[in-house]
Design a protein that fits this description.
917 residues, mainly beta, single chain, Immunoglobulin-like, 4 domains
Length: 917
Amino acid sequence: MSKLHRYPVGIIGTFTGWTCVLFAMVCVAHAELEMPQGPVRKTTPEVQLANPNVKNRVHRVGNIWMNMTNFGFFGNYSRQNTNQMTDPEFPGTYAPQAMYPANSGQEYLYMGAIWVGAMVQQGEHEFPRVSVGSEGWVRTSSNTSIIEFWPGEGSSGGIIERSTRPNDYNRLGDYISNDSAVSEQDFIATYTDTLRDPFWVGSDPIDGAHYPLGIKVTQKSYAFSYSYAKDFIFLDYEVENIATNYLKNLYVGLYVDGDVGGATEQVGVYQTDDICGFQRYYYYNHPDGTPDSTIINVAYIADGDGRPVNVCSGSDFTVPNVLGSRVLRSPNPRLKTSFNWWVSNGNTDLDFGPSWTDSKDWTETYGTPMGDAHKYDILSNREFDYDQVYTNNLNYISSHPQQDLDQSTIFHQWRTPKSGIRDQIAKGFDTRYLLSWGPLGVYDHTEAGGNRVYRLNPGEKFQMTIAFVAGMGFHDPNRQQLSCTSLDPTLYNFGAIRTPAQWAARVYDNPMRDTHTKLYPYGDGWYGKDTGTDGLFAAATGDSVIIDGVFHDFYPGPDPDGTENNGHNDSLNQHDSRFPEFLGHMEDSHPWIPPRLSYMSGNGMVDDGDGDPDFLGPPPPPIPKLRIESHDQTVTLIWTPMPSEDPNYFNPFSHLSDFEGYRVYVSESGLEQDFSLVSSFDKVDYAYFDPHTDSLATVPDSRTNAPSDTSISGVHLVRRPVGPNTGFGTIWHAEDSTYRCIINGVPPLIPRYYSVTCYSYGDPKTGTQSLETGKLSDMVYTAPSMNTLSKKVGVVPNPYRVDRDYTAKHGNGLSWENRDDGTPDFYPQQDRRIYFYNLPKKALIRIFTVAGDLVVMIPHNIEGSNHIGATYDFAEYWNLQNRNEQMVSSGLYLFSVEDKTNGNSGSVSTGKFVIIR
């Protein structure tokens, strides 16, 4: 059964399962700011008007397709639910919850949502209230989850889209290129919990009508297509107190309900064998057999064995991958992450979640936190649950008590799971989890009972950043689960998620990059890297580079004591400031820049960056500037070497001038994934490669007499060409110093998308692969057409027969009609086309009935016209609609073509055609 479909309000049901997402644990000490004692005051937020501008958009640029909303949650209702959302850019198409890999049909999410809870007071009574973006198990009368965050009215309440890609439009016709963009696809939404209208905000079966806290959330999500970043999406939250009074002991959490299932599996059932957990380390062996580990900090939900429900053998996996969450920025660096998972079920025995023996009594009976009081309990309980697969392993549970997050000498024992459910839960179930932090704000006072009180004052805000990371091959066909009833966690391949988790952290906060801010426009002098046992920061090389006003440096390697750069925190005595003494003063022209409060120092983790978010990864070379010529059956793509081959350009991460070559693509749809490679051109150069990993080991050079192999740091390397080594001679046009790629034999009047990209050779130092510009960035839509200098204006097809199938594919794979032209007004059922060819370069076409009535005027390449469609030099199409956008009837039609080109203006050609219905 699907979520929100079976049980009425107040009853817990069995719903589509949540894939437990991997979250990064931030292990830091508790921070306090002593403030004068003050009273607990009531929160009185303003009430929002009940006309929210509800929107949703889908991230599709990377390898995770995920639906985002502006009302508190991401994901989607199931395909069985009448409230399911469609993708606005693909009308009628279900908006994927979290599909991975892209276009595979494999879903790894139901819904994720933000939760915010605080203590409120009315009269003499104090009680907790929690506002949720989605609750996940109670349905309202409108068959939706309880949603308590809503956007504002009008356009200001919608979703803003931005992109770093130059000259980029989305499929809605919006120009989205923006200098303020962070990624190739930014979605920005703002919502609050202040709406009380019962039409929008469902009543909680336990607590009744919604009680607003006065919370405003700004949600930003970022997606990339680059090879190193296509497997994660950033979610960046800013949470603000917009109430008139402070909020007491506020906690925030990210709730994730993951339903893992393949395209061929039954919706409403495929989530009942999901497993959830948290993986802090990835363990591996070096080539010499030495064991080691690296931090990945991911909470995850995956299918228990990769196979459909009740299929217990074989490697015919329907969902072999994993989706997880890495916490990159907690709301306060001194707060440790709490991790809770549970199963929601109408059967009380199966409604289960781990809990301590000294936790609230209700957790002995239920796992699902029904009502605000239980939600606040689970937000603030400080638990870090064991993985779901250990539910039936009592020896493991008893031997792994949880060390208190604040006091290292206190350990909490776990309750023993009920005997009747242990095996059923451990083999996989409909699971969801919550990551939480708190209390947030500043320390106010200590109550009589010893409880500390923190307050988030009006206007104060905090931020948190999560990366949803996905990995291929969590289930290995060579190490498959032998049974679907007894799972072996050692067979799971956490290496699948290691690389995207590490890259997400690296892109979020770039290693050895001193980020400039408004407060510190020249940076603060700290590039990153933690201390070793000597308690000193890693020394910079002194060869820092300033790129776009940002300082960069290289990590020179370990200190003499040998403890630097070993991936572990070796010192308990770290500096409270991240400003290293050895840097002294900045350049003489700049004043001394004082240290800021360290975000990272003393957090028990190794931090490669400087603590300031960058959201930047290694870029490909600058994109070429493309123009196009087309006539007869030829399309010529023309571009210049600049800026792609600018000798003064250096990649800001590798500090290398890393341009390698160009690629030429063509597409019918104009979608990134639909482009086909036509040809490739690259520099003639060579480098050494690791023959085992096929990875670049040295920077390319043009030598032809270098040894065929070598050894660096004991690794045997072989020398070979970097790419096909075609050179640029066949496309170089010396007369005007341009490149010209000529594509012959192109069918006339059938438009396609053409693109030229450039790519790098990668970075052997960091292992970054070759990076290529996006195919949409300089995409041109065109078709060759005839030349009016030697031929008469014509019309095709003539006659036009409505009963003729003009949608049939030609030998080149294109159809005459029903071609998506990339514009927002494309409707296949209304796509009718008559083409005028052999037109002047600029012209005005007029179509008349035989009685002389004007049917329509069609501008062709005339400045100021709003005609949208393909770019033709000598052809134009008509959609068989009159000036009132109504389809015309059968009959004979006359046309005239007025030449509007310079020197020929006023010349007119005429003709006729027939439409038969």
